[in-house]
Specification:
Strand order of the largest sheet of chain A: 2-3-1-4-5
Shape of chain A: elongated
Oligomer: heterodimer
Number of domains of chain A: 2
Helix content of chain A: 40-55%
Number of strands of chain B: 33
Number of strands of chain A: 5
Shape of chain B: globular
CATH topology of the largest domain in chain A: Glutaredoxin
Strand order of the largest sheet of chain B: 15-14-25-24-23-16-17
Number of helices of chain B: 22
C-alpha cells in the first residue's frame, strides 16, 4: 500500500513514542502517506490505521480535522491562501479574488487540466506578511501582490 | 478528603472527584449533555458551567476537580447566564422537529430547553444541515442535524464496546458524527448508543415512528436470553410490546443492554405466532380446541421425556421436571459430571466481582457473542490492568488487551488447561471462567475438573437465562438428557429441536411429540401455544444465582396460555402428583420453598472425573451464533439483518483449504453422520489445523450431526446450469 521508504519514515516517527502509544504518530504518518500518494484516500487511511493499530474512523477524525490533509485528489499544485481576519484586512481577499479569476476556479476546485487546486487556508502565523500563499503545503510565499502571484503561477505552470 | 461548598451546602468528597460528583452527592442537579457517569470526561457540551469562587470564568462542573475550601454556585446569575448562553448556542443549529422526533418526551435537550432556553430564538440565519447516515439495521442516524456533538456515542464505542465505530470528523461548524466511509456499526452493544444520545440523532430503527414515548406503559421484566439476567423495562402500548430498554441495576447489567436483549422483542410480534392449539391429523396440522389438544397430548404422553429450554422460566421447568425424564441442558454433550458435582454450577462470584479480578483465564467461550455484557465487565477489568488469558478453539477478536491466548483443537482443550497454572500464580484475585463452548464440550466434566485443579476461583458463564435455574427447579430428572433421548414420546417446552439441541437429529427416535411453543412449527403431533416471557409471570435464576421474578407485561394473543398452566393441566390429566397449583406464586413456593439458592451453588467436582470421548479426522468447531441462540431472537427481523446474523460458512485455515483444493468463497460439502450441508468455504488462519468452524443453530447446518464431532469435507461439484 505504501512504499518501503515511506514505511521506514513512519517507523522513525513511531519510534519517538512509547510502544503502546503508536497512535501518537498518526499526524506524521498521514503527512508521509500524503507526500507519497498526493492525497489521502479511504484505503490509505485504512492502511495507516491498521499500521498504527487504531480504529479507521479515528484516523479519519484526524485527517478531516486539519485542512492540510487532502481528502480528495488535488491538482499537481495546491495553492492555499490564508483568508483569516488579519490577512483579510491586509489584502488577502483581493489576492484570492485575483487568483480565482486568473485560474478560473473557486476555492476547493481544481483547474480542468488538473494542474492547480485552490484552497482557503487558515492562519499560517505570518499575518505581518499578508497576503500569504502556501504552495503544496511546504513552501510559503509572502507579500503576494498580483505581480508576484502572476510570477508564481507562471513558475508553477512550467511543466517539466 | 477535600471539603467544599456547593450552593451553600458543605460536602466532603474523595480526592480527585469532580464538582459534578460532589453536586450529585448533595443531590444538586447540574444540567449536562456530554457528561455520563460511565464514560470518560469530554467537557465539550459546556452545559454544566458553574460559578467557582475566585475563578475568572465559569467552569465545567464535569471536568473541574474539587479543591479544599472551594465555593461553587450552580444557580448564581453568573452560572445561570453561562448555562442559558450555552443552551442558546446548542439550539442554533438544532432543528425544531420535536413534534415528529422519536426522542420527543424523553429528550434531554427538550427537557433542559424548558429551564435554560429562551422562549424564542434570536437566530435568524440558516441552520446547518447534516446528511443522514446508514449505520446498520439497529441504529437510525437519519436526522444527524439534531446532533449536538456531545460525543457520547463515540466514547461509548471506544471505552465500553471496545471498538470505535463512530467518530467525529471535521471541526467547528463542520463537525459531524460518522462511521468510517461505508462502514456500519456492528458492535453487539450498539443499541446503548441510542440510550446515550441525549437528543434524537441516534434512534432505534425498529421502533422508529411507531409510538410516542408518553403513550407507552413501562413494565419491569428480565431478559430471557443469556445467563446475565439483564433487567428490562418493557414498554407496551395497546397490548403490544413496542420496545425494550435497560432497567438500571448496577449489580447486573449496569445501565447497559446487549442488542440481543434490546431488539429481540420483535420476535414476540412475529407473524408466525401460534395462537391456537394444533393437532396433526393425517399428516396435516389442524387448529383444534384446547380440550381436544390436551386430551390428545395426554393420551400420547405416557412415559414421556421432556426437552425443556433453558430459556424457560423456573416455574415452567419445575413442573416440566415432574412430567417424566426431563432435561434443560440441550446443547450439552457430556453428563459424566452428573452426581459428581457438589452443587449447581454457577458464576462462582457476584457478577460485579468480575470487574475486580486481576487475572482471568477464560476457557472455551465465544465471549463477546455469548455474553456481551460479561465481556464488557472483563474489558473494564483489563483496562484497570487485569491480565486476561484465553484458551479456546477459535481466535475471535475480543476487543480487549489479552495477556496470552492459546488456540487448540477441541480435542486438546481439556489437556491444555493445566499449563495455565503458572500464569495464574501470584495473583490477588484470579479466576478461571468456563464458557459455553467448554460447557457444551464432550469432555465438559473433565474440563471442569481440570479448571478446578488450577486452584483459583472457578466460574461458569451461564449459557441461558435459567442455566442455574434449571438445576434449582430440580432438573435433570429421571436420568436427564440421555434418558429423554430413549423415549418414544417427547414433550418440547419452547424448543426447536433442530436448532436448540446439541444434535439436530435429537428427535429421531420419538414417535409422538407434543410441542409447547409460542411460534408455529412443523415439529410435533400436538402444538400447544404458550406465552413467551413478556406474557407470563415467572422467574429466572441468573448465572450468579440471583432469582429474579417478573410479571407479565401484556396479555397473550388468541388462545395462547402461560406454559405453567398448560403443564399443570397436562400433569393433572396424566394423573401425576404435585400439580395442584392455583397461582404461579404457589409453583414458585413449591420450587424454591424458602430455600436459599446460594446454599445450593457449588462449582466443586470430583477431581477424578473423566469423560470418554475420542475423535479422529477433521474436527468441527460449532458456535451458537448470537442471533440464532433461541427461538425468540431467531425471529427478530432487525437482528437478523446484522453482520452477526450472516449465514454460516465453513471456516478453516489455509493449510486445510489447500489440502481440499478449494478457495475461500467456493462451495463445499460438509458431511457429518448421515447429514450434509453445502456451505461456502472461508479462510480463518487463526484456526487450529484440521478443524473446521461450522456454526450450529442455523437452518443451513441443521442437517448435520452433533455440535462436536468429526466431519468430512469435500469440494462441491459445480452446479449444473440449466
Amino acid at each position: 500500500m505504501l512504499a518501503p521508504e515511506s514505511l521506514k519514515k513512519i517507523d522513525r516517527e513511531v519510534a519517538k513514542y512509547p510502544p503502546d502509544q503508536k497512535q501518537s504518530a498518526v499526524m506524521a504518518a498521514l503527512i508521509i502517506a500524503q507526500d507519497e500518494k498526493g492525497w489521502l484516500s479511504t484505503e490509505t487511511m485504512d492502511y495507516v490505521a491498521q499500521y498504527l493499530g487504531m480504529a479507521p474512523v479515528a484516523v479519519y477524525e484526524v485527517a478531516s480535522f486539519y485542512n492540510m490533509y487532502n481528502l480528495q485528489q488535488s491538482g499537481t499544485h495546491k495553492l492555499t491562501v490564508c483568508t483569516c481576519l488579519p490577512c483579510g484586512l491586509q489584502g488577502s481577499l483581493e489576492a484570492a479574488d485575483y487568483l480565482r479569476k486568473k485560474l478560473g476556479i473557486g476555492f476547493g476546485e481544481t483547474t480542468p487540466d488538473g494542474w492547480f487546486t485552490l484552497k482557503e487556508g487558515e492562519c499560517m502565523g505570518a499575518c505581518a506578511m499578508a497576503p500569504v500563499v502556501l504552495v503544496d503545503n511546504k513552501r510559503m510565499c509572502d507579500y503576494m501582490s498580483n505581480d508576484k502571484l502572476d510570477a508564481l503561477v507562471d513558475e508553477l505552470s512550467r511543466k517539466t | 478528603m477535600p471539603k467544599l461548598e456547593i450552593d451553600g451546602k458543605l460536602v466532603e468528597v474523595a480526592q480527585g472527584a469532580t464538582v459534578m460528583d460532589a453536586a450529585h452527592k448533595l443531590g444538586i442537579f447540574v444540567p449536562h449533555f456530554c457528561y455520563h457517569k460511565k464514560l470518560s470526561i469530554a467537557a465539550n457540551c459546556r452545559m454544566c458551567l458553574v460559578e467557582v469562587e475566585k475563578a475568572p470564568k465559569p467552569m465545567p462542573a464535569c471536568a473541574t476537580p474539587v479543591a479544599d475550601g472551594m465555593k461553587v454556585q450552580t444557580q448564581s446569575p453568573v452560572a445561570k447566564t453561562a448555562q442559558n448562553g450555552v443552551m442558546e448556542f446548542l439550539l442554533i443549529n438544532h432543528p425544531l422537529d420535536c413534534p415528529i422526533c422519536d426522542q420527543g418526551g424523553e429528550c434531554q435537550l427538550q427537557d433542559l430547553a424548558v429551564g435554560y432556553g429562551a422562549s424564542a430564538s434570536r437566530y435568524q440565519e440558516e441552520k446547518r444541515v447534516v446528511l443522514h447516515k446508514d449505520v446498520g439495521p439497529l441504529v437510525a442516524a437519519e436526522e444527524m442535524s439534531r446532533c449536538i456533538q456531545c460525543t457520547r456515542c463515540v466514547r461509548f464505542g471506544q471505552e465500553v464496546a471496545g471498538v470505535m465505530e463512530l467518530g467525529m470528523i471535521g471541526r467547528g461548524e463542520h463537525a459531524e458524527i460518522v462511521a468510517f466511509v461505508g462502514k456500519t456499526v456492528d458492535s453487539e452493544l450498539s443499541g446503548n448508543m441510542i440510550d446515550l444520545c441525549p437528543v434524537g440523532a441516534l434512534t432505534s430503527k425498529p421502533f422508529r415512528y411507531s409510538a410516542r414515548t408518553w403513550e407507552l406503559s413501562r413494565r419491569k421484566s428480565v431478559s430471557p436470553h443469556d445467563g446475565l439476567g439483564a433487567n428490562l423495562v418493557v414498554q407496551v402500548r395497546q397490548g403490544r410490546v413496542m420496545r425494550v430498554l435497560p432497567l438500571e441495576n448496577e449489580a447486573i447489567n449496569e445501565c447497559w443492554l446487549s442488542d440481543k436483549d434490546r431488539f429481540s422483542y420483535e420476535g414476540l410480534n412475529a407473524p408466525d405466532r401460534l395462537t391456537r392449539p394444533m393437532l396433526r391429523r393425517d399428516g396435516k396440522l389442524e387448529e383444534v380446541d384446547w380440550e381436544v389438544a390436551l386430551q390428545h397430548a395426554a393420551a400420547g404422553l405416557q412415559d414421556a421425556g421432556v426437552l425443556a429450554s433453558p430459556h424457560a422460566t423456573l416455574e415452567e421447568l419445575h413442573l416440566a421436571g415432574k412430567l417424566g425424564a426431563a432435561d434443560f441442558r440441550l446443547r450439552h454433550s457430556d453428563f459424566a459430571g452428573d452426581g459428581r458435582r457438589q452443587g449447581i454450577p454457577w458464576l462462582g462470584m457476584p457478577i460485579a466481582e468480575l470487574g475486580n479480578l486481576d487475572r482471568v483465564l477464560v476457557v472455551g467461550s465465544f465471549l463477546r457473542k455469548d455474553h456481551p455484557l460479561i465481556a464488557q465487565r472483563l474489558r473494564q477489568a483489563a483496562k484497570k490492568g487485569a491480565q486476561i488469558h484465553v484458551l479456546h478453539s477459535v481466535d475471535d477478536d475480543w476487543l480487549m488487551p489479552l495477556a496470552s491466548k492459546t488456540i487448540v483443537a477441541p480435542s486438546a482443550l481439556a489437556q491444555a488447561i493445566a499449563a495455565f497454572k503458572d500464569r495464574l500464580a501470584g495473583a490477588n484475585n484470579a479466576a478461571v471462567l468456563l464458557g459455553n463452548f467448554a460447557q457444551q464440550h464432550p469432555q465438559a466434566a473433565q474440563i471442569h475438573a481440570a479448571a478446578q485443579a488450577l486452584g483459583v476461583k472457578l466460574g461458569f458463564l451461564g449459557e441461558a437465562a435459567n442455566s442455574v435455574g434449571g438445576y434449582v427447579a430440580g432438573l435433570p430428572t429421571g436420568g436427564g438428557l440421555p434418558a429423554v433421548l430413549g423415549k418414544k414420546s417427547v414433550l418440547l417446552l419452547n424448543v426447536e429441536p433442530q436448532l436448540d439441541c446439541a444434535d439436530p437429529q435429537t428427535l429421531r427416535g420419538a414417535s409422538f411429540v407434543v410441542n409447547l411453543t409460542a411460534w408455529k412449527s412443523d415439529v410435533g403431533d400436538v402444538l400447544l401455544p404458550i406465552a413467551p416471557f413478556t406474557e407470563t409471570a415467572g422467574t429466572f435464576v441468573n448465572t450468579e444465582g440471583r432469582a429474579q421474578s417478573f410479571q407479565a407485561t401484556v396479555a397473550p394473543p388468541g388462545e395462547t396460555r402461560p406454559a405453567w398452566k398448560v403443564l399443570r393441566v397436562l400433569g393433572t390429566l396424566l394423573g401425576k402428583p404435585g400439580f395442584g397449583f392455583d397461582t404461579i406464586e404457589e409453583v414458585r413456593q413449591a420450587c424454591l420453598g424458602g430455600r436459599d439458592v446460594a446454599a445450593l451453588l457449588s462449582n466443586a467436582i470430583d477431581p477424578e472425573v473423566r469423560s470418554s470421548w475420542s475423535i479422529a479426522g477433521i474436527q468441527r468447531i460449532a458456535e451458537v451464533p448470537i442471533y440464532f441462540a433461541d427461538p425468540l431472537v431467531r425471529r427478530a427481523p432487525a437482528l437478523q439483518e446484522t453482520r452477526d446474523a450472516q449465514p454460516p460458512r465453513a471456516w478453516m485455515n489455509a493449510r486445510l483449504l489447500q489440502k481440499l483444493g478449494v478457495a475461500p468463497g467456493q462451495p463445499l460439502i460438509v458431511r457429518q453422520g448421515e447429514g450434509s450441508a453445502r456451505l461456502a468455504a472461508a479462510l480463518d488462519d487463526q484456526l487450529p489445523d484440521d478443524c473446521v468452524r461450522v456454526a450450529a443453530a442455523h437452518a443451513s447446518t441443521a442437517g448435520l450431526g452433533p455440535m462436536f464431532g468429526s466431519v468430512e469435507l469435500q469440494k462441491a461439484p459445480m452446479e449444473k446450469v440449466a
